[in-house]
Specification:
alpha/beta, Peroxisomal Thiolase, Chain A, domain 1, 2 domains, eleven-stranded mixed beta sheet, about 35% helix
Length: about 425
């Protein structure tokens, strides 16, 4: 029999708050984390805005001499892990270390390190490449560093599935605990890709918003005037535990993770299929895995990127899966309207938000929803948070290459 799995710790490091409580408070107030991009000179770039991790001081979590040996995405993961472990009260000891695992994914990894070291190579030759270059930027070193710093010696892995990375890390960790390969997992995603190469690349795809004069109004999922996503950065890590062990130590339980779905589009390298097939199947798979009926889902934290194509097709998919209920009681919001799109960290940040939604009985809004789009005619919880007792919250994540993940959180009652 599969073991039940619960969320006992949530660590969010996002553009709206360094820490879970600050992030949740900002979401409830409808605050935007978007502003002008201060990471580099954007004069020649079509997009000059981003959702930066403002006020982040890595020295609070990483020894000063070690900071330069880690790309920011690793630093963010270490901070998120610290918040998650502390909120869970989980103590990792020599007795339980081999039963606690780590799975921290990223869609892009250490882009800023790759760019800076390439510049060093071009300017000074191979001798100028840092000996810390490789361990500073490869994707699995976020999981590696979290493991080293927490002492977790169980399964150690990393997902790399574009914008579904964080969600897949959480879902795969759920399966690891279900089948008994670990008792607890530190899991999620981390991303720090506000770099010239990444912004230029996404910009030339015309995927990014160019609403440069109004940064805080740029990310507007489901709004008729949406024109692209806003690049974000940060990390979201969860502590998942087997229910019986969490209860035995008297842990606070934010939610129970009850459903996980995966699917592939097999359609296009960047665009979802025009009939929303992959998105439909991933939600249906998660709902079936949880043993639920669609109408039992009270809230969806949508992938909701603020791109014209994604929001239209996600709406279509929701309507296909949920039928008439999609417009008769189902709440759907996109917290990317506030955080921007954290790419590989988005799915785990939003899974954490879904867990907090069922725990607190409050639904975060979709801000900047001003011009209704007939093709996105859902209850998007426009502009203001809503108090609502949500029994089941579903979180969607879709990635380039047609890789999709869906997670379902249940309100836990002892």
């Amino acid at each position: 029999m599969k073991r039940r799995v619960v969320v006992t710790g949530i660590g969010l490091v996002t553009p709206v708050g360094i820490g879970t409580e600050l992030t949740w408070s900002a979401l409830m107030e409808g605050k935007s984390g978007v502003g002008l991009n201060t990471k580099f000179d954007t004069t020649l770039f079509s997009t000059k805005i981003a959702a930066e991790l403002k006020g982040f001081d890595p020295s609070l979590w990483v020894e000063k001499k070690e900071v330069k040996k880690m790309d920011p995405f690793i630093q963010y993961a270490i901070a998120a892990a610290d918040f998650a472990v502390k909120s869970s009260g989980l103590v990792i000891t020599p007795d339980n270390a081999v039963r606690v695992g780590v799975n921290v994914g990223s869609g892009i990894g250490g882009f800023s390190t790759i760019e800076s070291e390439h510049t060093a190579l071009m300017n000074g030759g191979p001798r100028k490449i840092s000996p810390f270059f490789i361990p500073s930027c490869i994707i699995n070193l976020a999981a590696g560093q979290v493991s080293i710093r927490t002492g977790a010696k169980g399964p150690n892995t990393a997902t790399c599935t574009a914008c579904s990375s964080g969600a897949h890390a959480v879902g795969d960790s759920y399966r690891i605990i279900q089948r008994g390969d670990a008792d607890a997992m530190i899991c999620g995603g981390s991303e720090a890709a506000i770099t010239p190469l990444a912004v230029g690349g996404f910009g030339n795809m015309r995927a990014l918003s160019r609403r440069n004069e109004e940064p805080q109004r740029a990310s507007r999922p489901f709004d008729k005037e949406r024109d692209g996503f806003v690049m974000g950065e940060g990390s979201g890590l969860l502590i998942l535990e087997a229910l019986e062990l969490a209860q035995a130590r008297g842990a606070r339980i934010f939610a129970e993770l009850v459903g996980y779905g995966m699917s592939g589009d097999a359609y296009h390298i960047t665009a979802p299929s025009e009939d929303g097939d992959g998105a439909c199947r991933v939600m249906a798979n998660a709902i079936n895995d949880a043993g639920l009926k669609p109408e039992q889902i009270g809230y969806i934290n949508a992938h909701g990127t603020s791109t014209p194509f994604n929001d239209k097709l996600e709406t279509m998919a929701i309507k296909k899966v949920f039928g008439a209920y999609a417009s008769q009681g189902l709440m759907v919001s996109s917290t990317k309207s506030m955080t921007g799109h954290l790419l590989g960290a988005a799915g785990s940040v939003e899974a954490g938000i879904a867990a907090l939604t069922v725990y607190h009985g409050k639904v975060p809004p979709t801000i900047n929803y001003e011009n209704p789009d007939p093709e996105c005619d859902l209850d998007c919880v426009p502009n203001k948070a809503r108090e609502a007792k949500v029994e089941y919250a579903l979180s969607n994540s879709f990635g380039f290459g047609g890789t999709n993940a869906c997670l379902i959180m249940k309100r836990f009652v002892a």
